[in-house]
Structure formats: C-alpha cells, structure tokens
Design goal:
homodimer; mainly alpha; 0% strand; DNA-binding; MT1864/Rv1816-like_C (chains A, B); DNA-binding transcriptional regulator, AcrR family (chains A, B); HTH_TetR (chains A, B)
Chain lengths: 186, 186
DNA sequence: AGCTTCAGTGATAGGGTCTAACGCATGACG
DNA sequence: CGTCATGCGTTAGACCCTATCACTGAAGCT
C-alpha cells in the first residue's frame, strides 16, 4: 500500500528523470543541469535535492534506467536468434543515441557503476550467450564477438564517424551480423 | 624568423595544452578547468583567454593533437601490414585512454569537428586501406571491418567493460586481428 | 484539533566560463 | 638610446552551475 506522499514523490521523481532525459538527448550528459530541470518543473534548484542526493546520483539513476530498458528490449527480441537480437539492439540504440553512450560511451575516471547495473549487464550478456548457443558451438566466445563487433559498428555510426563516407551503416551492420553467423576459424 | 614574443606565446600555449592533457587524463574532458590550469601555471584564469578563445577551442586543439598523434603512430607502424598496424593502434590507445575517447568517445550534440581533423581521419583511413591492400582484394571493405572490429574491442576494453569477466582483452584483440586476415564470405 | 513530517523557498558558499577595463613590462623603431 | 605601441596578466564583475542550511507553510496522520 502506498501513501499519497509516496505516490507524489514517485511522480515528481519520474518527471525529473523525464526532463533529464530530454536534456541529455539535447546536449549530452555533461550538459545536464539540475537548475534547468527545476525551472522546467516550476520549482527552484535546491528542491531537487529532496529527490536526488546529487547530480551524480540522478545520472546514475538514468544509467540504471538505460540498462533496464536495454534489458527489456533484448528480452522482447525473445527467441528470434542472433540476427533478431542484433536488430533489436540497433533500433534500441538509434532511438536515443545519448542513452547508448551513457552506457557505452566515454567513461569518467573514478566513476564506478553501481553493482546492480553490472548485474543487469551480466543478464543481458547471458541472453546473448543463449541466443548464440542455438547458432553453433562456442556460445560464449561467439557472444563476445557478437557484442564487440556490433558495438564497433554501432558506436561509430552513432558518433557520426561514418558521415560523408558514402557508406550505409545499416548494410555494414548487417554484414557484421552475417559474419557472426558463420563459424570462426581458430 | 620568429620573434621573441611569438616564441614565448608558443611556449605558454604548449604548457597550457600539457596541463590540459594531464587534467583530461585525470578526470576526463568534462572535468577540464581553465581556472585550474591557470593556477598550475601561476596565473589567473582570464589570462588563458590570450591563448585560447574559449574552453571549447582549447579542447578542439587537443582533439586536433590527438588526431595528429594517431596519424604519426600509424605512420610509424609503416609497412608492417594490418597486424603491425593493429598493434600500433592498441599501444597508442592504451597509452592514454582519454585521448582515444576524445576522438572516438561520446559525441557532444551540436559539436562538429573542424575540417582539418576530418582530413587527418581520411589520411589515417587511407593508410589503413593501403595496409589492407597487401592482404588480399577488397581493401576498402577490409579496412572498414578492420576499423570497426578493432574499435569494438578496444573501446570496450578502455571503458572497462571487460572488468571482472575473466577474459584477456589482448587475446580478444588478437583474435579479431586474425579474423581480419582471412577472407570474408559474402 | 493538534502535531509531525516534509516539500519547497531564499540565502549563501564556492566553483566554473567569459568579458571588460586597467597597469605595466617588453620588444620595436626612429 | 629614448619613445611608443603592443600585448600579457591583473582585478572586478556578470552569469552560469552544484550543494548546504535554516525556515515556512501545507499536507497527512493520530
């Protein structure tokens, strides 16, 4: 049973995170400003500290959400095999590139992700291994290659490094997916 | 012929960039502070604006330097073929991970790299294509795979995503290098 | 009805970027 | 060699930011 206070609190927390996502999409994580969020919600800056202990904690919470949403996206791909999973990953990433970079982008020296996101990461990896198991032997190694190769194409595409290169990122991505379906020579 | 003024100016600019690199290595690009740099050099914050028009311009200059240093690293690898080039890339990246992420990390929405760094990037890519040409047909496609696959492993390693996974990043990297040496099935 | 809890406020400290006006030394030049 | 302009570095200040603190007032609870 939730009290009215708790419901209100959850509501405001959700609104803060929503505005935070908008700001991050617009100007990246370093551009996120608690003051600006508060203003958008019609309150003053310090009020937000009722809901998040610090700016870092808010960002950590967003990272948590990002991991969670990737997990549900991967789960939703279900038993569609490696190719289906790869497709789901790409559409998920393209839906919000800054969300992708929040997880896989430039690390902040000294920052360590909380343990629960690392657990989520492990679960996602397990899903990946399971999907690769039905495509041949050596599921772990296959899943690892899957991850690194797709991340390679995806992160470069999302960062805009293919701009002006007369190249279709989707095709490049698809080619890597195909490369993962055939067995690797030692 | 350089005047004393010019020499002094170049010297101070170099010192600023040196301290900037130290700060970036220690706390990432968002943590770079002109005030802190000025203090380290024994002057006050505004003095730095004699040397760089803005914080962004200083960072842009560092990005330029990063591209330049990667180009010289790649050039130094010379005619050692794809494998040698891959090794040079990895040691260059490991030498300063934040430098790598300055080039290939999270992009800032709205920021566009200056044209000369894009030219440097093209030259580096040309080197890569040349190295791949001696390893078989389809040099461009091969070079592209080379780039995306190595970046995939390297960026995940540098960001610490392999931590606690009981896995040797160097071996993973080497495996990808091997994968690039064999011809790809369509 | 009274009391407690807590959301939101303004004030304040301390940091950042960046502009503007000002002293002052140094190099340039007649 | 003396004069003068160039330009380096300063302080002051505008305007951001995060974060803390004491306080007010309303809402919920007993």
């Amino acid at each position: 049973m939730t009290t009215p206070r708790e419901r209100y609190r959850a509501q405001v927390r959700a609104e803060i995170k929503e505005k935070a996502w908008e700001q991050i999409a617009a100007s990246g994580a370093p551009g996120l400003s608690l003051n600006a969020i508060a203003k958008q919600l019609g309150m003053t800056g310090p009020a937000l500290y009722r809901y998040f202990a610090s700016r870092d904690e808010l960002i950590t919470e967003l990272i948590r959400e990002a991991y969670g949403s990737l997990e549900t996206a991967v789960d939703a791909a279900g038993e569609t095999g490696p190719a289906g999973l790869a497709g789901a990953l790409r559409t998920w990433a393209l839906a919000d590139r800054q969300r992708y970079f929040l997880m896989y982008g430039t690390p902040v020296p000294g920052y360590h992700a909380p343990e629960d996101t690392r657990e989520t990461a492990r679960r996602i990896m397990a899903r990946l291994v399971a999907a690769c198991a039905q495509a041949g032997p050596g599921a772990e190694a296959r899943a690892l290659r899957f991850w690194t190769r797709l991340h390679g194409v995806l992160s470069l595409e999302l960062a805009g490094h293919f701009a002006g290169m007369d190249l279709d990122p989707a095709e490049l991505y698809a080619a890597e997916v195909r490369s993962l379906e055939q067995p690797e020579l030692p």
